[in-house]
Amino acid sequence: MTSAHMTRRTVTTAGLAAALALTPSTAARASAASARASAAPAASALRLPAPTGPYRIGATVLHLVDPSRNDPWVPEIGVREVMVTVLHPARTVRGYPRAPQLTPGAAGLFTLLAPEIHGLPAAGVDWAATLTHSHTGAPVLPGNWPVLLYSPGGGEARTMGTYLAEELASHGWVVVTVDHPGDASQVEFPTERPGRVLVRPTVFFRPPDAEQFRTMIDTRLADLRLVLDRLEALEGPLGRALDLGRVGVYGHSAGGTAAAQALYEDRRIAAAVNLEGYLDQVDGALFPVARNGVDRPLLLLGTDGFRDARIDRSWGAMLAHPRGRTRRRQLDDAAHQVFTDYAALVPQLRCAGLVTAADRVRLVGAIGPRAAVRAVRHQVRGFFGRRLPVGAQ
Length: 393
Fold this sequence. Notes:
Elements: H1 13-22, H2 26-39, E1 57-66, E2 80-89, E3 98-100, H3 104-113, E4 131-136, E5 145-151, H4 162-170, E6 174-178, E7 186-188, E8 199-201, H5 210-232, H6 236-241, E9 242-252, H7 254-265, E10 269-275, H8 288-292, E11 298-303, H9 309-319, E12 326-331, H10 342-351, H11 357-364, H12 369-387
Parallel strand pairs: 1-4, 5-6, 5-9, 9-10, 10-11, 11-12
Antiparallel strand pairs: 1-2, 2-6, 3-4, 7-8
């Protein structure tokens, strides 16, 4: 459910979201749904592509709380919370388990919402069974690693950006994947708190209107600033391994919009990749980054399957600035979700007979999964390799 492709498929979805948000047993329901999926004999276990870099990967989850802001979607919470996963080169992974893509609670809620998330199958998939190639708690390899922040698409969770984040971490960047709660499909927190349940669902089951889109991007920008602020204050071996003089940001769809605008607003960010995010508001007003240009490198990476007049207009404005450092690239035979884990997962669902051929093309395009993953990795890794090279001081 990206900012451009959030759809409401049934009239019961909003009621489902309200029930999940207000019921204290959300985590129990989600875990039960995950257990049912795991027990189903026909449930498919999906696989993520292995990263290609020389480094093994450790994963550290952080719960960040900003008491100076309230949550824009559920004011009863009283603070703004952000969940992130820090993927980093690991000194060793021996004895540290591979992290699941989705925890049981998150997988259970995802299972309940799956039909509303790009029309994914309501049954037949064990969403809790997919393992990443990152190891929970593995210690960081000492060094001065450049840092990349990742902001997912509207209505998406950080977990669906795993294949690209792991690729970058395996080549020596520290990658911080960021969830934007209330916006993301589901976010699991360490504990419940007044005003929110343990596994929080999205508020989006239809495309956002102009005010909601503006709030979504403004909130993401503030979330990214919070993450950078907290990384600067991070102590211990992980904090000492971060080279915060070399920071980049990338994002998909609404996350790409936020990445480009964050580059414009925050001088701590040296380079950015916008994976098919519009650079204008719903009403057509250009974001400042597109209106005024930016003096640092920006890659606009899109697909032929998603390209439309709004993309061309807002990206064209970005590219028109003299002496700009923005470049545009396009993947052919591809569609909007090729930049997410669906590039690898949807073809597996198609092979299992769980999605139609038409839905496969609609989501990721006709491009094969290996070619898709390789092309996206090549473009993003190559860009950051030139702009924020690992090992440079």
